[in-house]
Write a structure and sequence with these properties.
The protein is about 45% helix and about 15% strand. The radius of gyration is 29 Å and the shape is flat. It folds into three domains: about 5-125, Gyrase A, domain 2; about 130-215 and about 380-425, tRNA modification GTPase MnmE domain 2 (Four Helix Bundle (Hemerythrin (Met), subunit A), Up-down Bundle); about 220-365, P-loop containing nucleotide triphosphate hydrolases (Rossmann fold), CATH 3.40.50. By secondary structure, it is an alpha/beta fold. Bound molecules: guanosine-5'-diphosphate and magnesium ion (MG). Guanosine-5'-diphosphate binds near residues 249, 349 and 350.
């Protein structure tokens, strides 16, 4: 990585569109932008001012009428000079613009390099930078809302607050180490203890948000399982509101698993329709059955679909919901009797699209601890979860052996410093390059 290079990349996806955006960042951005303009151009580029201009090829032929905006560093996304060119959305124009920028001295940006520079230049911390990638990949409005809160610093601000409490506790202990001769100052130690307790409590609250945070931002896999012909594929179509899967009264119609995306109560859900589970001698179908079982094991939630009220409902599993389909085939009396006996079963008619919203509500309750998404801050990545887990564990150890540690205050100080360093690993700037590569490689080029 040569941070002195001026980098260039298209920021919009490849393909035809009304507009496309090409972006440059670095000391040379303004110079390169001026080279794209005709020699006769007299309109200066002004900071944060959108200017309509003609860009030309190196031979001086008109290429496109574009809008150029300069964001002078350090008050820009990357902290460096940025030029954004909004051109007409033809891949030919975009690739020509990028190659002319390279000809004039730019280098093509690596994936995530714009955001990596923002991080290096102190514009974002690592939690915020990671959330930029998640924001771009948001598959529901609620996922986007949660990610934008993270980009705007909801979690980072909380972590800064926790770090300063830890530093305060550490400085109280270190003060004791430096000044106290024989008697330890009880009051100062008690203050340090309470600070550490309050930080541990917040870590513990944060850890509880990870399950929901991951499901809301990364989405959930929900498997439709059950014997052939119970109506799994018909239900998939009802949940999607369109005909995605082939349905038929011939058992074994669905041989392979079918995946389809939808949003349930703000949560992006990948529904997986399976072949259904039954004994079969058909090699292709039995492979489908094997895959159905694998899917159930790795999913976040399973709908166990039945179409028979004499079916033994013996599934006691928080990750599984029993759904009685084809309710239209039973009398009200039969249904009532069955549901009274099994109050955790939902009855629906997939073909008539009856009770589908009730079912969606139950799916949401099964997926999330709090289906109203009411926490202020969520942990969303496994990296955040594992670092906070380590920090929480570190504090648990310190607090549970507080009296022993007081006898060796330097060990106590060392342990607290370890928790602070761990937190730094999550936010930057003590994060090793290997972790940075992992974070930024998940980005698209141009961000
Ligand atoms: N009466 C009734 N028939 C249904 C319902 N849902 C599905 N079916 C029928 O049941 C048969 C099997 O459906 P399908 O979705 O292919 O079952 P799968 O093998 O579990 O995927 C088809 O003939 C569907 O039309 C329902 O709610 N009521
Ligand atoms: Mg099917």
């Amino acid at each position: 990585m040569h941070s002195k290079d001026t980098i260039v990349a298209p920021s919009t996806p490849h393909g035809y569109g009304g507009l496309a955006v090409v972006r440059m960042s670095g000391d040379g951005a303004l110079r390169v932008a001026n080279k794209l303009l005709p020699k006769t151009n007299t309109t200066p580029l002004i900071n944060r001012f959108a200017t309509t201009l003609l860009v030309v090829t190196p031979d001086g032929d008109p290429l496109d009428d574009v809008v150029v905006t300069l964001f002078s560093g350090p008050n820009s996304y990357t902290g460096e000079d940025i030029i954004e060119i909004s051109c007409h959305g033809s891949p030919a124009i975009v690739s020509s613009l990028v190659s002319f920028c390279v000809e004039y001295g730019c280098r093509i940006a690596d994936p995530g390099e714009f955001t990596r520079r923002a991080y290096i230049n102190g514009k974002l911390d690592l939690v915020q930078a990671e959330s930029v990638a998640s924001l771009i990949h948001s598959r529901s409005l609620d996922a986007a809302k949660l990610n934008v809160r993270l980009v705007r610093g909801s979690l980072s601000n909380k972590l800064v607050e926790l770090r300063s409490k830890l530093i305060k506790a550490l400085s109280l202990i270190e003060f004791e180490l430096d000044v106290s001769e024989d008697e330890l100052d009880e009051e100062r130690l008690n203050t340090a203890f309470s600070l550490l307790v309050s930080v541990r409590e917040i870590f513990s609250t944060l850890l509880k948000t990870y399950h929901d945070g991951r499901i809301i931002t990364s989405g959930a896999r929900v498997v439709l399982s059950g014997e052939p012909n119970v109506g799994k594929s018909t239900l998939l179509n009802a949940l999607l509101g369109k005909n995605r899967a082939i349905t038929s009264d011939a058992p074994g119609t669905t041989r392979d698993t079918i995946e389809a995306y939808s949003v349930v109560g703000g949560v992006p859900v990948c529904f997986v329709d399976t072949a259904g589970i039954r004994e079969t001698n058909n090699a292709i179908e039995s492979d489908g059955v094997r895959r159905s079982i694998e899917e159930i094991e790795t999913s976040d939630f399973t709908l166990r679909i039945i179409d028979n009220i004499s079916y033994p409902v013996d599934i006691i599993n928080v990750k599984t919901l029993v759904v009685l389909n084809k309710s239209d085939l039973f009398s009200q009396k039969q249904l009532k009797l069955f549901l009274n006996k099994h109050n955790n079963v939902v009855s629906i008619s997939a073909i008539r699209e009856q009770n589908i919203s009730l079912l969606e509500n139950k799916i949401l309750s099964g997926l999330l601890n709090d289906k109203f998404h009411s926490a202020d801050i969520y942990l969303t990545t496994s990296r955040q979860n594992s670092v906070i887990k380590d920090c929480h564990g570190g504090l648990e150890n310190i607090l549970s052996s507080w009296n022993v540690l007081l006898a060796t205050a330097d060990v106590l100080a060392f342990e607290i410093r370890d928790v602070i360093d761990n937190l730094g690993f999550l936010m930057g700037p003590t994060t090793p390059d290997t972790v940075l590569d992992k974070v930024f490689n998940s980005f698209c080029v141009g961000k």
